[in-house]
Amino acid sequence: MNDTLKNTLLFAAVALLIMSVGFQQSWNSALLIIAMGLISSIMALGVNLQWGFAGLFNVGIMGFVALGGLAAVLVGMPPTEGAFAAGGWGVLGALLLGAGTILLAIFVMKRMDAGWLRTLAVIGVLVAGFFLFRGLLDPSVERIEEINPAQTGYLGGLGLPVLIAWPVGGLFAAAAAWIIGKTALGLRSDYLAIATLGIAEIIIAVLKNEDWLTRGVKNVIGVPRPVPYEIDLQNSAAFVERAAGLGFDPVESSTLWVKFLYIILFAAVLLILMWMAQRALHSPWGRMLRAIRDNEVAAEAMGKDVTARHLQVFILGSAICGIAGAMMTTMDGQLTPGTYQPLRFTFLVWVMVIVGGSGNNLGAVLGGFLIWFLWVQVEPMGLWLMNAITSGMAEGSPLKEHLIESAAHMRLLTMGLVLLLVLRFSPRGLIPEK
Amino acid sequence: MSDPYGDRGNKDVSIANPKGMGSEIPQRSGQTRPAPGGPFLIGENMTAGYGNGPDILHDCTIAVDQGEIAVIVGPNGAGKSTGMKAVFGMLDMRQGHVKLDGEDITDLSPQARVAKGMGFVPQTSNIFTSMTVEENLEMGAFIRTDDFSDTMAQVYDLFPILKEKRLQAAGELSGGQRQQVAVGRALMTQPKVLMLDEPTAGVSPIVMDELFDRIIEVARTGIPILMVEQNARQALEIADKGYVLVQGANAYTGTGKELLADPEVRKSFLGG
Amino acid sequence: MDLLNAIVAFLNYVFVPGVAYGSQLALGALGVTLVYGILRFSNFAHGDTMALGAMATVLVTWLFQSWGISLRPLPTALLALPFGIAFAILLLLGTDRAVYKFYRVKKAKPVILVIVSLGITFIYNGVTRFIIGADDQNFFDGQRFIISAREFKRATGLDEGLSFKTTQGITIVTAIIVVILLFWFLNKTRAGKSMRAYSDNEDLALLSGINPERVVMITWMIVATLATIAGVLYGLDKSFKPFTYFQLLLPIFASAIVGGLGNPVGAIAGGFVIAFSEVTITYAWKKILVYLMPESLEPSGLVQLLSTDYKFAVSFVILLIVLLFKPTGLFKGQAV
Prior knowledge:
Strand order of the largest sheet of chain B: 7-8-9-4-10-11
CATH class of chain C: Mainly Alpha
Largest sheet of chain B: 6 strands, mixed
Number of strands of chain C: 2
Number of helices of chain B: 10
Oligomer: heterotrimer
Mean pLDDT of chain C: 90
Low-confidence stretches of chain B: none
Number of helices of chain C: 14
Radius of gyration of chain B: 19 Å
């Protein structure tokens, strides 16, 4: 069996799985799986760029995805009236001051000779800067958060079309990746894993805590959409008529239509990114990347700047995750910082990449769809399984209740099992690198 | 095709220990057969390489007999160290045999060869740098179940400086002292034959002379020594038997004196 | 008098909690550092190993409680701890046989083992939730305080009370005993020395006749013991909730790296450095400053440098600073 046929069959199998959801459960669920599968594929594409083509181990995917979500809020939401006047300049000033402090500390670090005097100077700059920063930030923040705290209490966004947020999300993630890469890849050895793990937690902590920016755990809801609202469709006579013509009731058809539009948008983004990734990898740049991956010493000896290449690919991969994050928040219509969990947003994407096939873009896409399908469908499958197992048990027995209740936790177990099975029996993934 | 178990060039020390996973050592059955006669230790007609890689040794023979010092010399990349490792069982043998003391040990793992009485001092990473000198010697005696304090005393007699530094971390010692620790560690098993891979690599000429003296002293206690040396002339002077390897095959073989006198050998390998 | 009050407040809110938390982190970091030293990879499943070991202990504790067995005034969990440890040892040895060993034989690169450990993380996490659920579980019993704040105030006449919880006392004492035993084992016993030798130079250890499988087995047993103890102590002191153990991964890794990966002394030092930075930076110092400063200078705010939600940020910034100045950690680790 040749590769093309095998890959086609694999994708067909996943399509069949998703269609079975459509037939057995509902087409809404099936379309949702496709939409989220597309987003997952994009994340996997970004991580595959880093791991598959450069061997960089990023465990902070969650942070980049969340930054994309932040972009959706900052770009798409309308500005809160009076918030910027109340404290916007103060916050901006404080942020600039904070950045300035760090730059000054770096400057002192580079200019002064090593010794206790330098250490003292750096610490002095940082401490003084921190208190100035807090002194400027805190009152402004208080003023912003006072404005209608139940509804807003934050700066709001720019009120621009939310589609702009997608590239902006990529830029946010790229900027964060640049800072991380500069520090973690510039050290004598790499410390990328722990650095990304830490930064991701910090980003989530900021989103949860800085109410002036994201309303924190109160969540931002009602992020504007790039597609029509279901209710508007249902009120549109033309739409209802067309739906009726096809034999659909207006409510179901409106939800399906909205999801379909999202799928079109997401698929377009995926195709563009996929095309770019493939082009990049077959360009001299991509060949150099793989040369470095396969033999860093030789590449270095030929005068290739390994750190710079790694930094580039790390930024690109993270930016892709940021785009995916913005898309996800757009579709959800809300930013809920409390829901970002490393297992779901970092490690699950890793499972997608490994299962799909490290180093193969098509594999990443397959992995994205397959693993997302399992992530969503294992719970009902587990429930069904538990019901089957416990069918012989007495009604109301504690074991039966416990088993049925625990079916929800089958999902993590299954993900681990799938990852381990693939690593063991098909260690190069379902669609291996050529 | 990418290696499914490779690291894709990842250098992230926060998740992966840069020391890696140790060398790949071929799996062996562990069977021995009696093979009487011949020299005490011989690697006979060895053709060998790493894993599925190309052959590095071609029909190469190396041997050492009781009370002898045998030296392997040759140009860089001639397969000197590889020959040594093949005798010690760290390569995949395609053809040939290794015999020790009347026994065919071709199918033994390196560890099993240590238990049979072979002592091996690798060229690099031949000591436990983070452990004290004394702990290094203790680890050398790991397979012994009897009291090894006598042997340790003998090692300290042979290398007095080690006794002085016995509580110091071996990694803090000078190059020559490290080599003494390495040889001392190998002696702790009371080996029946000692194999040294370039024991004088990277030490100063004075220290080198002293090391050679010590090695002769070890040989006088009755342990046959097989060693690889970069300093061919000096090594052949103390050798009872010499092997000149070129491209993984025997080029010249003879006593040390014969080789030193051979005009061909002088011209090609001893610089005239 | 004010100075005494300030000292007591410092001990009560910063020092004692810091030491207890530091001990827990140190025990966790020791496990991570041992796996890194011997098995050569960072074990992402360590947090969930702690959770599973603690879970087994919790279940046995409940069983004992239902039988009416108790260890008053100490918590019954101490009695159940050996069973939890035994469970964790079986679990890790089983995992090694079923999963890790395959890759060891293949001489897979450490990064592959890291990815494998991600899979194990999912499975352990799922199993824990499957058996005991995702919620908070209380398994503490026995006397709550060694010194209670009220008694302390009455006895000393100070305004500030010093409370010393039983769990904090147990944590500190247990950590000291465990660390002493571990170092005795590593430095004085044949098996311990063989572990250090293997960690130092795998090939040479092999040539010396050290059996790698045995070293790996002993390592997993020690790691299981350390993880269970750390997990139970943390659970007693705070509360048992599966997810918090997963979250402990970052401060534990940070501790191990700050100290120098692969170096046990470093792991302990790193644990305390991280714990104290977290506690001091997220503590509201107003209470203490009020005693120390003249009334006119009293701070108006809480004098809290960062809100407690940023404690991860603190571990991470400390980590970054150490790495920038000393890339191999405070104590020379294996990451050279």
